[in-house]
Amino acid sequence: MRVKQLDLNLSPKVSSKEVKARRRVLSRTLEGAWNAFVKGQGMEFAGFRKYTFGDDASRIDWGASLRAKDTLVREFEEYKNVNVLFLFDVSDSMLLSSQKKLKAEYAAEIIFEVSLAILDNGDSVGYAMFSDRVVNKQMPGVGSGLVSKMSYAFMDPRNYGGKKRFDKVMGVANAFLSQPALVILVSDFINLGKNWEQYIRMIAQKFDIIGIMVRDPRDAIFPETASQFLLEDPLSGERIYVDVQQCKEIFEEHAQKEEEYIKNVFSSVNASCVKIDTSNNDLLYPILHHFQRRKGIIKG
Questions:
Q1: Quick one: which of 135, 189, 128 has its CA closest to 162?
Q2: Domains of the chain as residue ranges with CATH
Q3: Helices and strands in the chain, H and E counts
Q4: pLDDT of residue 285
Q5: Coil, strand or helix: which one is 11?
Q6: Cα–Cα distance between 34 and 25 in angstroms, integer?
Q7: Which residues contact residue 32 at a Cβ distance below 8 angstroms, ignoring those fewer than 6 apart?
Q8: With 229 labelled, which of 3, 67, 124, 136 sits at a CA distance of 20 to 30 A?
C-alpha cells in the first residue's frame, strides 16, 4: 500500500498556539527529569584537579599524579545530555484512517512536536522509520539541520507503506546508541510480527523504552450499522463477508484485550505504553500527562 501525498503540519512556526504551549510545558517537564527515565544515567569523567585537604583519597589518580609531579584527583560530572531515538512504524497498518488524517500522519506530527520539545531542552533526537526494513534513519543530534531532515523524511510519501518487521529496526537502535538513551517506539502495534515482545525485552535490558500506541477508533470499535461488509486481510489477501452486528461485540472485546496485553508487555520490563486515540484533538496531552506522572508532578 502506498500513499501519493500526506497531510502533515511539520513547521515549528505555524503550529497552533495550543500545540506550542503544550510543547513548552513538555520541554520544562523534561528538564532535569532524565535521571528518572534513562537507564545507566550517572557520572562521566570530566578531568583532573589538584588534591585539596578533605578530598576523597580514593579519587586520587596516582598515575596522572606521577606524570604531573603533583597530587591530582579525578573529577566527574553528571551526564547532561540524553539521546532519544524514535522508532517510527510507517507500515501499511499505519495508513488506516476514519478520522481527518492517517495514523501515520498523526504519529509523524506527535514525533515532530515531542522532538522539538526535547531539542529545546538541549538533548539529542534521532529516528528510524521502519516497515519491513528501515526506510529512513538519522542518528541522534541537535540543531535546525536535524529538524529539516526529519521534516523532509516525514513528508516524503515514498517512505510510507509496506509490511511490518520490527526485528529489522533492532540493529539500528544498537548501532545508534552507545550512551544512556531513551527509545520511544511509535506504532499501532498491529501485526508487529512474531515474538515482538522479546525485542522489547532486549531493548529494555540496555535502554529505557516507552511505547506510544497510535490507534484509530476503527481499530477498536465497529461502526454502528446493521450492514454486511466484505473484509480483506491486508497481509494474506483473504476475504470474508462479515455481519457487523454479529461480530461487533467479539471484535471490540478482542481489541480491548489486545491493548491491555501490549501495555502489560511494557509493564513487565518496568516500562510504559501511552495510548493515543486519533479522535482526540489534543494528541500531545497524553504524552505530557505521562511524563508529568513519571516525574511526580501529578499523580494517577
A1: 135
A2: 17-35+81-215+270-295 (3.40.50.410), 43-78 (no CATH)
A3: 8, 10
A4: 83
A5: coil
A6: 15
A7: none
A8: 3
- Which amino acid is it at 259? E
Cell of 168: 529489522
Neighbours of 42 (CB within 10 A): 11
CA dist 48 and 68 (Å) reads 11
* Residue type at position 52: T
Cα distances from 141 to residues 84, 85, 149, 266, in angstroms, run: 9, 10, 11, 27
Residue (of 134, 94, 129) closest to 112 by Cα position: 129
pTM equals 0.80
**pLDDT 10s digits, 242-263:** 887 888 888 899 999 999 999 9
Q: DSSP of 63-131, one letter per residue?
A: HHHHHHTS-EEEEEEE----EEEEEEE-SGGGG--SSSS-HHHHHHHHHHHHHHHHHHTT-EEEEEEES
CA distance 27 to 22: 9
CA 275, CA 103: separation in Å to the nearest integer? 12
